[in-house]
Amino acid sequence: MGVLPLDVVRNRIDVPDVPIPEGRMVDLPGRGGSTYVTDTAGPSPDSPTVVLLHALGCTGLLTWFPAIEPLSERFRVVTLDLRWHGQGIRSEEFSLVDCADDVAALIGLLGLEDVIVAGYSMGSIVAQRVWRQHPDCLQGLVLAASTDRFQRTPYERFFFAGMGATMLATRELSRSRSAVRAARAAAERVDLEPTDIQAWALREFRSTSPWAVGQALAALGRHHSRPWLGRIDVPTAVVVNTRDRVVPTARQYALARAIPGATVHEVEDGHAACVLGAERFVPGFLEAVATVNARRRDLRRR
C-alpha cells in the first residue's frame, strides 16, 4: 500500500526529475498540531482545487510530485502530510477518521471552494472517509489504487489480525513524550531544499518511521466502506492500475461499480505507478480529475 519499493531506497531506480514545490508548516486549529502543506496556484484565482492525499509510508510530495505541475495548469493543487507521515501531526494513535478530519480542517482553514479530493492507495481510503465525515467540504472524488476493504482472504485476515495485536502491544509508545520528540526531530532533519531528486526522495521516504507504517497498516485493516459507498453523491472517478499486485485490480473495478456513476480510468502499470510509472499514470490521473471537474460544473449549472 506504499509507493516506493526497496530498490528506490537503495538508489537503484531513477525517479522523475521534476520541480518540487515549496511548502510550509500549517497549524490545524483544534486538530492537535501542525502538518507540512504545499499550495500550488492554478491558472486563475478562482481555479478549482485538487487536494491530494498520499500513500502509506510516503508524504504528500513523495506520492504526488510528478503530477503537481501538470495539474496546476488547470487547478490549484494542495498536498499535506497525513498523521505520523513525514511532518504530519503526531497523535496518540493513527486513525483514518482523524486523518479525514484533518483534511476537512485544512480545506476550511485555507477557505477552499470547488474542491476535488484525490487519494492514492491509503490516501484514497482517507478520501472516502472525507466524504463520509464531511460531505459538504468537497464536490468531487478521485480514488486511485483503491478498495473498499482489505481483509478479504484468509491470509489478509491473518496478517491484519497479527498487525493489530502488535500495534496494541506497542500503543503506549505513541503516548511517550520522548517518542513524539524523537519523531518531530527526525522530521525537522529532513532537508526540503533538494539538490538531487533521488536524494530528496530518499529523505522524504525516511521521514516516516516503520512504527508509523505499522500503525497505519493496522488502521487500514479495520477499514470497510462497502456499506456506504453506494451513498456517495459527488462525481467520482476511479483510477485503476491494471497490473497492481498490492491492491488487486478486480477490487479496484469492484469499488468503481459500487459508487453510483463512477467513471473508470485505466493505467497499465503497478502499485508504484504514481511515481515510477508517472509517464503513464499522470495522463490517466489528469483525465480522471478533468472528468470529475466537468461533471461537477454540469451539476452546478443545473
From TrEMBL:
Domain AB hydrolase-1, residue spans: 48-276
InterPro entries: AB_hydrolase_1 (IPR000073), AB_hydrolase_fold (IPR029058), AB_hydrolase_sf (IPR050266)
Name recorded for this polypeptide: AB hydrolase-1 domain-containing protein
